[in-house]
Amino acid sequence: MKPVVAALLACAVVAGSAHAATRAESALECGVAADMAVVAHSLAREHIQRPKADAIMARVYDVSASDRGKELLRDITDAAYGVQEEQGASAGGTASSQEFAEELYTTCMKRGGDMDTILGRRS
After folding, report:
1. Cα gap 72→33, rounded to integer Å
2. Residue 65: its pLDDT value, please?
3. With 0-12 CB in 10 A as exposed, 13-18 as middle and 19+ as buried, what is 32?
4. Which of 115, 96, 94 shows the shortest CA–CA distance to 33?
5. CA nearest neighbour of 43 among 113, 97, 115, 108
6. Contact present, 37 and 104 (Cβ < 8 Å)
7. Distance between CA 94 and CA 25 in Å, rounded?
8. Could you give the count of Cα atoms lying within 13 Å of 66 in the half-sphere of its Cβ?
9. In this predicted model, what pLDDT tens digit does every residue of 33-44 receive, in sequence order?
């Protein structure tokens, strides 16, 4: 019975981590993620339609050869547009793109590349 429980727990851990936002693997990647955050948040603040924003982000950050890069770009853009929607719904939401990027970078560096608290978890 113990091996079965251990196997189930292992599967749960693997399944849970599959839904986490993409992790940065170095300080350099945290910096690139912060740069992506500035651009994505700026596009969201300017109310650029999401498909057009996705196309712009893909041109600026050529991640076509990297699945991790594509996931990170999508996670950051999702978060930027989500933050903008939340701020639009609340009175006086004035966080700047720079503040969003600084929060992402700080979190990334402090948590060893884990940006889930900023980027959220995919469902």
Report:
1. 8
2. 92
3. buried
4. 115
5. 97
6. yes
7. 31
8. 12
9. 999 999 999 999
